[in-house]
Amino acid sequence: MLKTFQEKVLPKMNLFGKPVLLNFQGSHKSQSKIGVLFTLLLVGFGVWLVYYFGREIVLKKDPSIVTSELYTADPPPMTITQEKFPFAFAIVDPKTQVGYINESIYLPKAYQILRKRMIKSDGTVEVSVTRNPLKLEACQKDEVEKFVGDNDLDYNDFAGLYCVGQDAENPVTLEGLFSSEIYKGFVIEFHLCNSSTSSVLCGSDEEIKAKFVSGTNFMINFGNTAINLQNYDRPISLYRDNYYTPVNPYTMFKEVNFFLQKIELTTDKGWLVEDFEKSSHVMYQDTKDIQNSVPSSTGPFARFVIKPSSVTRVFNRSYIKVQDISAKVNGLFSVALIVLIILLSPYANLKFYETLINELFMIKLAPKEDTNKINMKPEKLKIMGPHKKKNSVAEMERRESLKATVLTSDNPDTKK
To answer: What is the pLDDT of residues 347-377, one digit of tens each?
Structure first.
């Protein structure tokens, strides 16, 4: 037992033993031509993977997109400009069905409304309303072309209609709901021409009534928002849209609530780490009409109100990064490598043992020779080993002797 322990167990407990490394033909690997071929194919496959996935980071296509809708009881401020939400409006002529400007028939008035609602300590509600008049003018071509740009809009969509004068210092702002503590909206009211208040000569009653027969509408042409998150450079663009509703100052009062929705877009443009770019936009959401069968005798016959929506749409998009490409390439490359190892392992083992056996016997296969030839050239016989020349001569002598013996045994005279 002690002897067995000394011979088998103790040698394995040596922590300082030196590993024995052998090599084959000066290399630690057995080489084969087919192995080299598949190695080149594998390298080519790896280069193609880098190109295939790497182009995504350059072309900026197929982003990861996350969308959500956020409800807010008090919508945050939303600035309305002609660049974000271009629009023009007018009353439609019932004969031509085209919007027209004629202050001798009707007069529009626009203003920014600010409504503050305060609840006092005794429970009563105090409301204050401020109206800031805005300038209305016929849409000018040079002003329209500033915001048309590459969008699907044209000056013809605004020609002959009213536009709101732009005030860079006091832009139109939408905020809150009508029940909020602070509410801001944009209002357009339409009045019939009144000789006592109008600065222009009003048309006759017959002329005015002729403009408000069946088929008279209020119209608004506007640039609505199109969202294409697959487009890296221009994910947000504008396209032409419109809204019509019938109006008649002699039979009804019409109020149109026009809701705009805020759009928030966040783009992660980073190649290695996060690099966010944020932008805010405006989009038409819905309209609600309020109609009263009793028209006003002194006030407006139609009111158009632009309000903010309580729902904000949020878009987040991110593009593939370098580490993502590395993970994809490494994963597919590893799978291909494992498959090739499994397929080529039997062949590689077979070639290795074949070469190893030939080396152990110091014989390298030579071309087949004609066995009928008696005189064989020594250089045709390739025998490996350190004494190649000496062994070749001895082998030739042995073969010559063997052939001579065979010839002698076959000769009848020699047998006698």
So the answer is: 777 777 777 676 666 544 444 444 444 444 4
pLDDT digits (tens, 9 = 90+) for 13-39: 555 445 655 565 666 666 667 778 888
Are the C-beta atoms of 67 and 315 separated by less than 8 Å? Answer: yes
The string of DSSP letters for 211-268 reads TTSTT-EEEEEEEEEEE-TT-SS-SEEEEEEEEEEE--TTT-EEEEEEEEEEEEEEEE
Mention every residue, 6+ apart, whose C-beta is less than 8 A from residue 65.
229, 315, 316, 317
Pairwise CA distance, residues 400 & 416, whole Å? 23
How long is the chain?
Answer: 416
Q: Rounded to whole angstroms, how far apart are CA atoms 224 and 322? A: 37
**Residue 31 CB partners (closer than 8 Å, separation 6+):** none
Residue type, 110: A
**Euclidean distance between CA atoms 293 and 249, whole angstroms:** 10
For residue 135, with 0-12 CB atoms within 10 Å meaning exposed, 13-18 middle and 19 or more buried, which class applies?
Answer: exposed
CA pair distance 319, 271, nearest whole angstrom = 8
* Nearest to 164, CA basis, from 132, 203, 212: 132
Q: What angle separates helix 322-360 from helix 33-59, to the nearest 10 degrees?
A: 180
Quote the CA–CA distance of 9 and 256 in Å, as a whole number. Answer: 97
